[in-house]
Design goal:
This protein is α+β, with helices and mostly antiparallel strands. It has two helices and five strands; from the N terminus they run βααββββ. It has a five-stranded mixed beta sheet with strand order 1-5-4-3-2. The radius of gyration is 12 Å and the shape is globular.
Length: 91
């Protein structure tokens, strides 16, 4: 079973700012994410974001790049993409 994908405008804008290599790496991970958005697999570190969001949010770690998303039914909604700068850089 595959999930569909929706990327919100702020995430798209951040992705457009990145170089081609970084963007391609994110697209490759998102393709894997469409198959299993909740469970980490080799090379994909997925954590549930602390807090009481409904539906719960998740964070995909790709090196220093973070992709934050939530799953609504069969749709993965990516709402934030950012580069981690410091140890406590989460918003």
């Amino acid at each position: 079973m595959s999930f569909s994908l929706k990327m919100l405008r702020p995430a798209k804008k951040e992705l457009d700012k990145m170089n081609k290599e970084q963007a391609q790496k994110i697209y490759n991970h998102i393709a894997q994410l469409k198959r299993e958005p909740f469970r980490p697999s080799p090379g994909m570190n997925i954590d549930k974001v602390a807090g009481k969001q409904k539906p719960p949010a998740y964070r995909l770690k790709i090196g220093r790049i973070r992709v934050e998303y939530f799953v609504d039914g069969r749709v993965i909604v990516i709402f934030n993409i950012f580069m981690k700068k410091r140890k406590s850089d989460y918003r």
